[in-house]
Design brief:
single chain, alpha+beta, 12 helices
Length: about 290
Amino acid sequence: MREILFDLCRRYADAHVDRSGVAVTPVPGLTIIRALHPGELQAAINRPLIAMLLQGRKHVATGAESFEYGPGEAMVIAADVPTLSQITQASLRHPYYSLVLELDTAILRELQNAAPVEQGDAPCVGVEPMNADVTDAAYRLARLFEQPEAMAVLGDGLRRELHYWLLRSVHGPAIRALGAADSRSGRISRVVAMLRKEFTRTISVEELADVAGMSVSVFHQHFRAITTISPLQFQKQLRLIHARRLMLIDGAGIAQAAYTVGYASVSQFTREYARMFGAPPGRDKRMATMRV
């Protein structure tokens, strides 16, 4: 089944991939990533997702943990956590392909009582062999990529089924918590959504704790436990990642990018950018131009 899923995704990605290596599918939140060469180190704060690796290899580090995974394995990220990732195996002859689904908290909330989940704690980030039921549901969904009429009728149900089987997987407890509005993960998710939307403005920890419905000390503890970093570090990384995108993709200048994402000082922006990406913004832009 995995081989047939790979063939469907490969053909769709080859026909629809954009310049950044992303092929957007007709299914909300479902994309195919293709790379023709090993990549540079990428910093991101991922939304909760599952990445099913079909060909190639990838290395992902988050906090003190790191993972190397390949074909037939899936990485589940059941929290908004910062990651450093790098595609380590890809070529023109054997490109890297990964099918990535962003987890939908609304669907997870609807399935709270419908999908039994094993008790116990599960890590928010982990790599496991691709679950047979998840693979089967993904295959039946991929079959509809080029059939818009069938997708309109069957797509939502298959996307819901995919979430159901993920809840039944070894990562079920961590994924289930995303859909529980009053759970610790659900409360922190509300704060993360706010930070993603308003990362350019100055936000106090007290305001964030109020959104979570927690005291400041308890909020700090839970936020760091789930995301691995503090709220201020989280906002800073969002700003720097967005600023890098503005410069490398949109062609913005250094000062323009710094002020756009909320920095009052270009020198501070430059220092923090270099610490995160390993080079100051000017050099990083030149290196990116050379790679192109």
